[in-house]
UniProtKB/TrEMBL annotation:
UniProt keyword annotations, A-Z: Metal-binding, Repeat, Transferase, Ubl conjugation pathway, Zinc, Zinc-finger
Region Disordered: start-end pairs: 1-31
Pfam family membership, one: Ariadne
Cofactor(s) essential for the protein: Zn(2+)
Name the record gives this protein: RBR-type E3 ubiquitin transferase
CDD domains (alphabetical): BRcat_RBR_ANKIB1 (cd20346), Rcat_RBR_ARI1-like (cd22586), RING-HC_RBR_TRIAD1 (cd16773)
Free-text function comment from the UniProt entry: Might act as an E3 ubiquitin-protein ligase, or as part of E3 complex, which accepts ubiquitin from specific E2 ubiquitin-conjugating enzymes and then transfers it to substrates.
PANTHER family assigned to the protein according to its UniProt record, in alphabetical order: RBR FAMILY RING FINGER AND IBR DOMAIN-CONTAINING
Domain RING-type: 123-337, 127-175
UniProt GO molecular function: ubiquitin protein ligase activity; zinc ion binding
């Protein structure tokens, strides 16, 4: 430990209790492994900026080019076809072989150099598209062997680019699935429409983000202009360098242990009028004349609508206005209407169940917002305590405890929407019997209550005015915060293990995935280096000169990237 400045409110900080010089018996009960410091690992998530976007794309291109000895446009065609998943590409290569790999992606690699030789300057070909003769210098042959006049090729390319098919423009020949060389496309289109050629380049550039399941735009509003790349699992939660934490899979706010589908339904349920409709069903009845909902505000079962119609509250039937306390003149509703009663009871039960989970979710969400304001007061308390002549000089346990409170409060709040759907009938009605559902519900709620109890104790301990206490009392609070932090971390881990193994893991449907629990909190993505490595070995000679990275001006990069940024802003709204 260097000093207090090493212990800020970063989500990357962990607990550093084992190296404290003082001896405290309360620490002996804890598992030593839980308190030992581990060297920080490199971030597995990267932030891609406009400066590093080309370098990120280049990195994958180089891997494929070097592995298969391909030109750049061949490597790009393969990667776009396999959605920039290099591991999947390699798996297909091993399983099916190079020939099948190329055929499926529409890549034609010319083995015989003579077949790819340019047309003789004196030769003339008949274009099969326009049925006109064209000289060698006004016709182009693709690697698949098909040759057409430049005018037909250009029109074909322009149509495909305007249709948004720039990433995979196929040959014009009948039943030919070969992908056209991007250098030829760029060359022919730029002669007639330079702006369209830039649009073509932009589509190729944006394919790294749009077609790549491991890269997504940050959903911040206003948009920060950055993308996030994950290395391992797409079902994770990340933090952009702009500070926004979000679920990488669905791009909504971080919501584990809820699955993306659960959180989508819960958000909709909380924001739309579905529960208002439920309340109306439970507390009102429709007027038999105008069908508007009427709420009963007295003890008499004869109700009058604002339209003037009177009806019986018990059965909903239209009546006259003459009545006594015991009966309505000319009306009898003694018959039991089972369906209507069942419908009302069901709506009532669903409403009360929703209110149970929603009230607890909102309570912990509100607590999180209030506790977030503790940061300033905690810093003030630490400053005052450091000025006192106390034997304890290190107050990192305070900030670490506060970070643990934030993380666990968030887990606890999202555990209630998870429980609402996990033990309801919307998703898993046929997956569990009523008895199994009850057993699993009790198991989960026991863990939830233990976590809730310890989180409240930690919150109360951190709100103590420890800067005013004596040396011994400060030491007691310190031990309490440390022990509670370790306990809460263990309980969070056990809750996630229970969800992954005993609850979701035992189901046949694999549509629900949750982000894994991370003791140190959501990982903050690190900046991807924008240093461009142009040494591509023997394949470098194949690279189009106008797409060499060292020759790409800042002006052109801005022209390519600004539309991408606008598109990302559109998607984030």
């Amino acid at each position: 430990m260097e000093g207090e400045e090493d212990y800020g409110f970063s989500e990357e900080e962990d607990y550093y209790y084992a190296d404290d010089g003082d001896s405290h018996d309360g620490l002996a009960d804890n598992d030593d492994s839980a308190l030992q410091w581990a060297p920080p690992k490199g971030s597995t998530t990267k932030v891609i900026t406009k400066e590093s976007l080309l370098a990120a794309q280049r990195e994958d291109l180089r891997r494929v080019m070097e592995l298969l000895s391909l030109k750049e446009h061949h490597a790009r065609t393969l990667l776009i076809h396999y959605r920039w998943d290099v591991e999947k590409l390699l798996a297909v290569l091993v399983e099916k072989g190079k020939s099948c790999l190329f055929t499926e992606a529409g890549v034609t690699v010319v083995e015989n150099v003579d077949d790819d030789a340019p047309l003789s300057s004196s030769s003339t070909i008949t274009c099969d598209i326009c049925i006109e003769d064209a000289s060698a210098d006004t016709a182009t042959r693709m690697e698949c062997g098909h040759c057409f006049c430049n005018n037909c090729w250009t029109e074909h390319f322009i149509i495909k680019i305007n249709e948004g098919q720039s990433r995979r423009i196929q040959c014009m020949a009948h039943r030919c699935s070969a992908i056209c060389d991007e250098a030829i496309v760029r060359n022919l289109v730029s002669r007639r429409h330079p702006n369209l050629a830039e649009k073509f380049d932009r589509f190729l550039l944006e394919s790294y983000i749009e077609d790549n399941k491991m890269v997504k735009w940050c959903p911040s509003i206003p948009h920060c202009g950055k993308a996030i790349r994950v290395e391992e699992d797409e079902f994770c939660e990340v933090e952009c360098s702009c500070g926004l934490q979000f679920c990488f899979s669905c791009l909504s706010e971080a919501h584990s242990p809820c699955s993306c589908l659960m959180w989508e339904r819960w958000s909709k349920k909380c924001h739309d009028e579905s529960e208002t409709v439920n309340w109306i069903t439970v507390h009102t009845k429709p007027c038999p004349k105008c069908y508007k909902p009427v709420e009963k505000n007295g003890g008499c079962n004869l109700v009058s609508c604002i339209c003037g119609q009177s009806f019986c509250w018990v059965c909903g039937g239209a009546t006259g206005r003459d009545h006594t306390w015991s009966r309505i003149a000319g009306h009898s509703c003694g018959r039991y209407k089972e369906d209507r009663e069942k419908q009302t009871e069901r709506a009532k039960r669903d409403l009360y169940r929703y209110m149970h989970y929603h009230n607890r979710f909102k309570a912990h969400t509100d607590s999180f917002k209030l506790e977030s304001k503790l940061k300033e007061s905690i810093l003030d308390k630490v400053s005052v305590a450091e000025e006192r002549e106390l034997r304890l000089k290190d107050f990192s346990w305070v900030t670490n405890g506060l970070n643990r409170l934030f993380r666990s409060r968030r887990v606890l709040s999202y555990s209630y929407p998870f429980a609402f759907y996990m033990f309801g009938e919307e998703f898993f009605k046929d997956e569990m019997t009523d008895e199994e559902r009850e057993i699993k519900k009790n198991l989960f709620e026991d863990q939830q209550q233990q976590l809730e109890s310890n989180v409240e104790k930690l919150s109360m301990s951190l709100e103590e005015p420890f800067q005013q206490f004596s040396q011994d009392k400060v030491m007691d609070i310190r031990m309490r915060v440390i022990n509670l932090s370790v306990t809460i971390d263990t309980l969070c881990q056990k809750m996630y293990e229970c969800i992954e193994s005993d609850l979701l893991g035992s189901l046949h449907l694999g549509t629900h995935h949750i982000a894994p629990y991370k003791s140190k909190g959501i990982e903050r993505a690190s900046e991807l280096s924008s240093c461009w490595n142009t040494k591509l070995g023997s394949t470098d000679e194949y690279l189009p000169s106008d797409f060499q990275l060292q020759g790409l001006s800042v002006w052109r990069m801005e022209r390519l990237f600004i539309p991408l940024k606008r598109k990302a802003l559109f998607h984030s709204k």
